[in-house]
Amino acid sequence: MTNKQQKICVVGLGYIGLPTASLLGTKGFSVHGVDVTQSVVDTINQGKIHIVEPDLDILVKSAVGSGNLRAGIEPEPADIFILAVPTPFKGDHEPDLSYIEDATRRIAPHVKPGNLVILESTSPVGTTENVVARILADAGHKIGEEVFIAHCPERVLPGRILIELIENDRIVGGIDEKSTAKAVEFYHSFVRGEVLATNARTAELAKLTENAFRDVNIAFANELSLICDEQEINVWELIKLANRHPRVSILQPGPGVGGHCIAVDPWFIVAAAPQSARLIRMARKVNDAKPDWVVEKVRTSAKKFKRPVIGCLGLAFKADVDDLRESPALHIVRQIQQEQLGEMLVAEPNISTHAEFDLQPYQDVIKRSDILLLLVDHKQFHGLRASDLKEVILIDTRGVIK
Ligand code: SAJ
User: Fold this and answer.
1) pLDDT, tens digit, for every residue of 299-335?
2) How far is the CA of 78 from the centre of ligand 1 (A)?
3) Residue 152, Cα to own-chain centre: how many angstroms?
């Protein structure tokens, strides 16, 4: 029986682990959060946060203040362990499972009979069985008899994490039926969405499929944007019209796909099924090629001036976040800078300073530019109208400027 007297050990206090740990803390569980970075641990123990996410500061403050959340460098014995560590790729888009391996090895000495171990990190098919269960079995644990293991992929959208942690349906797949049942019971204790039971391998592929579906759909939109550019058609109007068909729902083109989920996870499907995953691989390539296409547009426009002022609006990987990881906007701005295509002005309203760029107020950038490159559809840019701008070449990669 899941009860809130239970102790939970959450390994990895990043964008998934910290919201999960603090949510469980405010729901009455006793939570020990683990992170390898001492400064992260110290910040959280002061009731503060090291990442930007709406309302997370309030939740962490409340969970730490109530005594239900403590952070540390080392795992501690618990009833339920949740692994929420990163799964990046390495080399030629091969999954890097070293964080999961390391986290599992670190909890192994603390796991005891009756415990449930949940892998929340997005993982290639087979990871729950072949990495987590294998490492724990090698450490002497009786998997399936005494120790239960399940995969429950996180599915929350940055910017809406705290809402989606509770409201989203969850997919739970154990390595056996008992593990599935125990994990389903645990998620029922704090999720309002449905908790959908399956096996570990299906749960793993379901998460990768969700992000690959979005990537393929965005690639379709990005491909349309190239076709429309050649044929002088407004791609956003085109998509809006096509989407009025009851069975068509195309996403939006942009300067490329960023963040470390959608631009990464489809490669895990490709790595495991290189012959079959042709469309998924191609979608990644289409999306990855888009930033260079945008830079080429800037190059062509810059040739019309002696030394143009190039204004770049936005650096984040998507609208209304301060997250620059794998951001196509950042890639594009760096390339323009490297090629010295003109005098560059950069605005990113969600951050105050950047190590490489001297950030300017976006209003000044808009006023001073000869070429205005809109890279992120932040809310601050939504009121922009071409008719209000001085004579300027507009490159609007998000279809924001009216
Ligand atoms: N993008 C477009 N056009 C669109 C939508 C998005 O170019 O129409 C771009 C964004 O600008 C951004 C990238 O795609 O650069 C990814 O942004 P996103 O908002 O689509 O997704 P993420 O990476 O913030 O979060 C995704 C979500 N997955 C799905 O919606 C299927 C989220 O639910 C997952 O939990 C998250 O990945 C994750 O952690 O895997």
Assistant:
1) 999 999 999 999 999 999 999 888 898 999 999 999 9
2) 33
3) 16
Which residues lie below 8 Å from residue 98, measured CB to CB, with a gap of 6+?
none
**231-252 confidence digits (pLDDT tens):** 999 999 999 999 999 999 999 9
CA 158 to centroid of ligand 1, rounded, Å: 8
Give the global pTM.
0.95
Q: Residue 264 and residue 246: Cα distance in Å, rounded? A: 31
Partners of 94 in beta bridges:
90
Q: Cα of 258 to ligand 1 centre, how many Å?
A: 8
pLDDT tier at 390, thresholds 50, 70, 90: confident
Pocket of ligand 1 (CB under 6 A): 122, 154-158, 210-211, 214, 218, 251-252, 254, 257-259, 261-262, 317-318
User: Domain-by-domain residue ranges, the chain?
Assistant: 3-207, 303-402
Sign of the dihedral defined by the CA atoms of residues 362, 364, 366, 372, in that order: negative
**Annotated catalytic residue 207:** yes
Which CATH fold would you assign to the domain 303-402? Rossmann fold (3.40.50)
Q: What is the number of other CB atoms lying within 10 angstroms of the CB of residue 282? A: 14
The CATH number of the structural domain formed by 3-207 is: 3.40.50.720
